[in-house]
Prior knowledge:
alpha/beta; single chain; 29 helices; Tex N-terminal region-like; five-stranded mixed barrel; 12% strand; 709 residues
Amino acid sequence: MDYASRIANALNLGVRQVEKTIELLDAGATVPFIARYRKEMTGNLNEVQIAAIRDQLLKLREVDKRRDAILQSIDEQGKLTPELRAAIEKAETMTELEDLYLPYKPKRKTRASAAIERGLLPLADALQKQYQCDVEQLATPYINEEKGVASAEEALAGARDIIAERVSEDIAARNKVRNIFRRTAMLSSKVVKDKEEEAAKFQSWFDWKENAMRAPSHRILALFRGESEGLLRVKIAPEEDEQAIETLERQFVRGNYASSEQVAAAVKDGYKRLLSASIETEFYNLLKERADKEAIKVFAENLRQLLLASPLGQKRTMAIDPGFRTGCKVVCLDAQGQLLHNETIYPFTSVREERAAVAKLEALAEAFKIEAIAIGNGTAGRETEEVVKRCRFKNKIIAVMVSENGASVYSASDVARREFPDYDVTVRGAVSIGRRLMDPLSELVKIDPKSIGVGQYQHDVNQKMLHDSLEDVVVSCVNSVGVELNTASRELLSYVSGIGPALAAKIVDHRNRRGPFHSRHELLQVERLGDKAFEQCAGFLRVRESDNPLDRSAVHPERYPLVERMAKKVGASVEELMKNKELRQKIDINDFVSDDCGLPTLQDIMKELDKPGLDPRAKFEVFEFDKNVTKIDDLQEGMVLPGIVTNITAFGAFVDVGVHQDGLVHISQLANRRVNDPSEVVHLHQHVQVKVLEVDLRRHRISLTMKGV
């Protein structure tokens, strides 16, 4: 099978590019590795293009696997003719294959199969010839009490059942009905009788109808959720069935005889009872898949932005997990995120306790030389922020509100228990909040991405597709930032190209037993980490304390000899070359082009020599909410407030203005121009100014705008 040509045509890429990418993927190379270190082979394809090739390749191979199974099944039935084999081998999509297989697919007993068992197949064949005849007379010989055919009409009914099933399984007929659905199908919903009160959240769709193929993904998922909860009845069908029935009659009915009337009746029954339901299911799955892809795309982009959020960096941090009745859990962390101290304060139980809490925070900040404070943004978050602001610290300390999404999931996880076996969930949760401020990526990789709260309908979409997509995002982010080999957690290491959970555990175990790694090449001493894994992972790992300065960069070890030749040419050491811009400017990279190392790789190397191991994430900026607004009751229409974008969906962006309830900036309110995709205007964690349009206290809904603000 010529996969490369088909994928190249589908993705508008060169056949040679696709061939080489497939070759690398089949050899076990990862997407980040191919994109970063094999640019010459792929013609400089990026991660998105390489992942698309991989996904297309998997789909084509799945089709081939299904093709083989179908051929085997039909062959075992003794019905595989040369013409049928040729048609199956020519089919390019799963839909074409399933259509060809449908007449031969083992089924549960149907009305048609029952009619065939009663000996009515010859009658169905005779009727379909549509000769001029007396149909009752034609059917009379098939009357057989023993077989359950008591009359000529019963015989004709059975024959019509056989014809109806043939109509529903005819490839041309199915394609004609598909085209009608594609052009005219409506997506409609109605509330289930006597469920109006229970279905209140779906009230907008109690009596809804729109063109199915133009329905937005978020509405499709909302309707399907309502149906899955037993609150809505959803239907996908042309507004009128007559067009489809007339189309099928033109195909199957050939004459004006009594036999033709029997065929026409069978065609109508075949469409209404079998074919329309089959195609409706097909379109239901089509719309669901399309909506899933859109929702997952939004989720994946949000996750990417969240993982690549600005890190505060290695600062001694105090983290507070707020609470009114149960108190605020306070932890102090060193610059590497290690837990130094924990205790609980109760600033909201009395004035006396509040004063004690302020004094305690001041003392802890002094004792542990705290440089930053991370405050969870959940219940009591803004109130805790006010308590922190009343503290008089001896040194300047920044205080930052941090999202708690997923912190409770982490604190109860096996990862957290392994890290902090002697502490309860409250301590673990507070530590996670602090570490998120220091390095969001390193901490968030420990949590199932679905629990981070930056998607829509994440529990309704295809879970494997969601998992694979989010896994790709995490892998991409981890490898684009790079990982410090001697401090990275097992979870972070597992996302590095070529490593995975098992090798990550081996690396951490090796590090714990033998001490820190002194070079990248020492990785080869790790049990079961062979040359292939080293090739895939080495360039994405950093060893800050290595004697070889290239170990601190993204230059792959396979290119160390090349850099050494560059340094030698200008009469310097590698370290001098990296520190001296004038020396680097003397190098003409064209002198170093070879068969396996072209300009793209050489340009990457020069960038790394200029700024080795540069973190691609933006610089951290402190954000503050309006101090006069801490709860939803404080909001008034017309207020202009600072906010942080917390979630982006297909229909708008959610913004935290510091009242424990995010407000929605509808897509129509994001800008003074028409916006098709909210991500054109905003990104996750962006600091924005918003105006309050409406506050619905009963439903806890806040409508915001960014127009003219």
